[in-house]
Structure formats: C-alpha cells, structure tokens
Amino acid sequence: DLEPTTIESYSFGENWVTGEAIFVEREGAQAENDGWLMSYVHALDCGPSKVVILDAQHIKDGPIATIYLPVQVPVGFHCNWIDYRKLKVK
Length: 90
Prior knowledge:
Elements: E1 16-18, E2 22-25, E3 35-43, E4 50-55, E5 63-68
Antiparallel strand pairs: 1-3, 2-3, 3-4, 4-5
C-alpha cells in the first residue's frame, strides 16, 4: 500500500510458489483494497496445484479459502476470472 507505506506478505512455504494474483473487488467496496486476491499456487516438486483466496486487507493472515486441484497447473499459466452474472449466454 503506498499510503500509508506498508507491506504485507504471506509465505506458502518452501515448496510452493505463487503466480500473478488477481484482485476481485468486494461489491460496495469503500477502500481500494477491499476485496480478495486470487492466485494459483504451484508445488515446486510438480505435485498438484491449488487456488488460494486471500483477504486483500489481511494478507498476512493467510488464505481464507483454498481450492485443491487434482493436477499440476504449469507455472506461468494465465487465465481470466469472469463474473458469471456479466456473461451473456444464449
């Protein structure tokens, strides 16, 4: 956070590396960091990956949810997260 100048981090452990986090704003958010960070977390031993969700205002507390995947997602994998309510499905 640039104002005030603070840094928060969370370690997933020695065997894990996270990809690029995506910010999802909470509906009705009042602060710029009011929402969640979602990211793939990759096992360095090529084991199954996971998706983690962090509260963007309390990153150091660790994940508020973890989705354990049955497969390894490649490091550097990119995707998009889309609000299903905004999809125009015929």
